[in-house]
Amino acid sequence: MEQGSTGRWAWLVGKVALGVTALLVFGATGYAWVYYAEFTEGLTRSQALGSGTPRSTDGATNILIMGLDSRLDQNGNPLPQAVYDQLHAGDSSNGGYNTNVLMVLHVPEDGSRATLVSVPRDDYVALPGSPAGHAKGKIKQGYGLAKYAREQQLAAQGVTDRKTLEAQGREAGRKQTVDSVRAFLGGIPIDHFVEVTLVGFYDLAQALGSITVCLQGPTQDSYSGARFVKGQQQLDAGQALAFVRQRRDYVHPELNFTDLDRERRQQAFLASASHQLKSAGTFADPGKLAGLVQAAKKNIVIDEGLDLMDFVQRSQGLTGGGITFTTLPIKGFGRINGEDVNLVDLALVRATVRELIGDRKPAPTTLPPAIVDVVNAAGIEGVAGQVQNGLVGKGMTKGSTHTHPHQLGESALYYGKGADEAARAVADLLGLSAELDPDTTANHVRVVAGTDFTLPAVLTPTTSAAPTTSRPAAAAAPAPATAPSGPMEAMQGGDVPCVK
């Protein structure tokens, strides 16, 4: 569950350190696992990726990498105090079960150049199947919400064993995260996943030894312990933690750090580390390989169906720099229900994903026929008409519009009998979950636009000056940093990239 602000800075240590560990496991220590095959027996396997989960049919492989913000071991027990001291990240009371790192690694069928897509952790999205009352939220929150709900369910059944509660709770969290990411990205198949906890990065960084990174200018931050100079420099494990978790610089405020810059740092560390692993001849050093394997095994969970040897044989280009790093675009920063969030244009996100790792077919230009009714629960005049006109322009039939007597914090989408196909299409476009409602007229789709609603750009008339977000001015307090004006430039592997 989300923690209070008192511990916020501490769990930022795990922002991408976790995902960094995971990708290096595949791109680098995968070789080590093949070389030290006996070590694979100690890996934790998960059943969360059920047989009904859609998989790739074109021979490609999509792997979801989850970086879990937890200071506990796999059984929910605290780590040794010495470990907390090394991490400088609080203790077992800090952190939580947010997936502070979410990345999708796409490897083509022929094993050629891979793509790593980072999903910003604060993207405000639909959480399909999430516990009641949490239909939308930050994408990172789904894991913890589902874990907590499952543990409460088991406790009500009389289960008291801490290990059982932790194991089944985490399985629910993994499934929720897979479902949320897949839905957000437009239904892309998730073939496998890997989950990494905080301490895994520190262990791996120690096993790697010093890593070369490059910065565009000097920067420092007392919260993370970052103190770096301009240009290339060698980092030990502790400095590597600071490098990937830095989110501010009060000494150089013009740098305007945001969460997206931490995504960039993560990608730069990955590129640098994989480049160094290959150029330093690590794969020919049995001692180094053994250390990497041991570090990778401690805090990693993979799905039951992932065949590491097969994956390594098909993706050997990863360690040769054959990977492109990119971050999904956001629309801007905002505040919803008192929390800082990333506002997203769902249509743009899904178009980006299709271009990067999908079938590159354009999104449908028309919607299935149905009558669309819209309820304005946002507190902003004109929202219902704007939503309805946009959907009618895509082929739907104009129904009714009216204003709800109260503002609602969460948007919703309901449909009557016979409108299921249209409802799914509208839900996909608006980023909502469609719910069959017996009170909704047959062949009608009813959109309830709450204060969290954001109109996709594809539904916004180019000549209209109407607002594209339903948030009242009071709810959209300015964030301390400005969002980028466009997508971040892709980063190529194979060298040591220079970043902010």
Automatic annotation (TrEMBL):
Gene3D superfamilies: 3.30.70.2390, LCP protein. Residues 372-453 form the LytR/CpsA/Psr regulator C-terminal domain. Residues 463-500 are annotated as: Disordered. Pfam families: LytR_C, LytR_cpsA_psr. Keywords: Membrane, Transmembrane, Transmembrane helix. Residues 98-278 form the Cell envelope-related transcriptional attenuator domain. Residues 463-484 have a biased composition (Low complexity). The chain crosses the membrane at residues 12-36. The keyword Transport does not apply. The keyword Transmembrane helix applies. Belongs to the LytR/CpsA/Psr (LCP) family. This is Transcription regulator. It comes from Kutzneria albida DSM 43870. The lineage of its organism: Bacteria, Bacillati, Actinomycetota, Actinomycetes, Pseudonocardiales.
